[in-house]
Amino acid sequence: MIETKVRLGVIGCGRIAQAHLAAIENLRDEVDLIAVADVDEERARMAMERFGARLFTSRLEDVLQHPEIDALIITLPNHLHHPVTVRAAKAGKHVLVEKPMALNFNQAKEMVEEAKRSGVTLMVGQSRRFSYAVFELEKNLPQIGSLFRIQISFLVNFPSPPTKWWKRKEEAGGLVILLQGSHSIDSILTWIKKMPIRACAFSSRQNPQWEGEDEADILLSFEKGELASVHLSLSTLPEIHEAILVGTKGVMRLIEYSTGKPFSFGYYLDLNGKRIFSGDQIPSHYTLQLEEFVRALREKRKPLASGEEVLNTMRVLDMVRLSERENRVVYVEEI
Fold this sequence. Notes:
- By secondary structure, this protein is α/β, with parallel strands linked by helices.
- The chain has helices at 17-26, 41-51, 60-64, 81-90, 105-118, 132-140, 169-172, 176-179, 181-192, 285-299, 307-326; strands at 6-11, 31-37, 55-57, 71-74, 94-98, 122-125, 147-157, 198-204, 215-221, 227-233, 235-247, 250-258, 265-271, 274-280, 330-331.
- Helix 4 (81-90) packs parallel to helix 5 (105-118), helix 5 runs antiparallel to helix 11 (307-326) and helix 9 (181-192) crosses helix 11 (307-326).
- The longest helix has 20 residues, at 307-326.
């Protein structure tokens, strides 16, 4: 059991890393930032200076082999999640890897298997699980009875790529289906607590700056007739991010809004038309997520959003991608 501060390294110092590094800063009593790494050495140096790491490097091996590091946060482009996580696990480091966990289910399964083999903890950055509004939603799920419909709209606006690898279909694994769909599908599976039996998906590209899809609609059906739909966009302004959960006894509606600060959000939660939660999420999702990771390491238990658990999310994403490619309904047993 880790009884002192958890000693961390961060691999990748780009856009999303800033949210994780800020979370580390918020939890200085619990964690110690040993090293930051990025292929862009200057970016790594700037991260070290801003967030107080002990060292910076452009070499992955320097972090993987550092004897003082207990765990790594991996914030690399999507196509690197699998190879770097596997190498980190083999090096004996616990891992918190950004979502999507990998480009596909088979890669994700290899990550879980290597973590088990190496005796390390693997958690996936499904950060939308970690808000007080979502905790309140989950607490109140019994109030609306048995879920039979979930509708999620995740419609945001990125007029240009915030980072270069988003442009490239091969590195992003497409684009919006993995980028945002990984959050939405993970939420659906967490709330409905079962796998779908069928999936159907359609996608398009509105913005020529992307190689991959920037618009997508996904429909899932479950064994007892339950339905879930996900609507994804990178070209919607004003942005709309909401989830509607319909049960046999009522409805819950979760609305997310941006506070105007990077990676900072607030929520409204309504239960049968009555507002039961309202406010900005402070501390950040990423702080609560890191807190869960640290506690799981100390308590020697699986964290929420463990790699093993998120395999189901990856399996559904594979169903969705196959449906999108082949323009047909895909059944779970095909994956």
